[in-house]
Design a protein that fits this description.
Blueprint (H helix, E strand, L loop, with lengths): L1 H11 L17 H29 L4 H37 L3 H28 L12 H10 L3 H20 L3 H26 L4 H24 L3 H30 L1
Length: 266
């Protein structure tokens, strides 16, 4: 995959207009990238770790529970890829629109991404819930695992919808430079709300995997609600001002450094 991407970039020459070659300048201003990269990384890792923890805990109950958790998780990951694609598109489109100073396009891209997410998540969630008794046969013929999977998929439709909305919202947050807020929402949702409730239902209430996914359902409902309220009240004018301020600051800082370099060379 890596070689294929590098090959495509090299053959299509898409780097010509954006990269002038190696220079000492590439070692400067890493702080801006790190401030964006670390919260973005946490937004993804916090969510992924939570699902993996479920598999680890299910192994303490029984092989059947572990198999059911693996089946539901695999199904969730497969269906998550499409909302995640909308999320990436929203991030790029919203970010480019704000960079170009076009608030109208940023708002439109946000609305379109949510509509596309709903058009996929609603029917796919209903379909999976309707086929809950047969989905497990794709992964295993074991009837015990199938019974647990069937019960767990009853809550899959609302979970999938809220998870998809949360994923798309996270893309909009990244596009507007609000990664830190997204990281905080994910941390609170998964580790303060979702996991404590899920683990309690899993072991104390003896609901097993079903209890864990109920906890995750509470988590994604909370996340989607917070994200949607925040985005609906988002100040696009203020976001544009922040982008312009950042751009001008970087521009004058770079110009000042270039001036000093020219003086030193003389």
């Amino acid at each position: 995959m890596c070689l294929g991407l590098f090959g495509y970039i090299y053959v299509k020459k898409i780097y010509v207009e954006t990269w002038g070659g190696w220079s000492k300048d590439c070692l400067q201003e890493w702080g801006t990238f790190i401030r964006l990269a670390i919260p973005s990384m946490l937004m993804l890792c916090i969510e992924s770790w939570s699902f993996e923890i479920g598999g680890f805990l299910a192994g303490f109950i029984s092989v059947v529970e572990l198999g059911a958790q693996a089946t539901v998780l695999q199904l969730t990951n497969s269906l998550y890829m499409i909302p995640y694609g909308f999320s990436v598109s929203a991030c790029i489109r919203v970010g480019n629109a704000l960079g170009a100073g076009d608030i109208g396009q940023a708002k439109l891209s946000t609305k379109v991404s949510f509509i596309c997410t709903l058009l996929f998540a609603v029917p796919s969630g209903i379909l999976i819930a309707g086929l809950k008794d047969y989905i497990s046969l794709i992964f295993t013929p074991d009837r015990e695992i199938g019974a647990v999977v069937s019960k767990t998929l009853l809550i899959f439709a609302p979970f999938h919808l809220c998870d998809a909305l949360s994923a798309n919202s996270a893309g909009v947050m990244r596009g507007t430079g609000k990664q830190m807020i997204g990281a905080i929402v994910n941390t609170v949702g998964f580790y303060i709300v979702g996991l404590p409730i899920g683990i309690s239902l899993m072991f104390a209430a003896k609901l097993g995997v079903i209890g864990y996914w109920l906890g995750l359902l509470f988590c994604v409902v909370l996340q989607a609600t917070i994200y949607i309220i925040y985005i609906s009240r988002f100040s696009w004018d203020k976001a544009l001002e922040e982008v312009m301020f950042s751009f001008l600051s970087d521009y004058f800082q770079t110009k000042r450094k270039t001036k000093y370099v020219k003086k030193d060379s003389r």
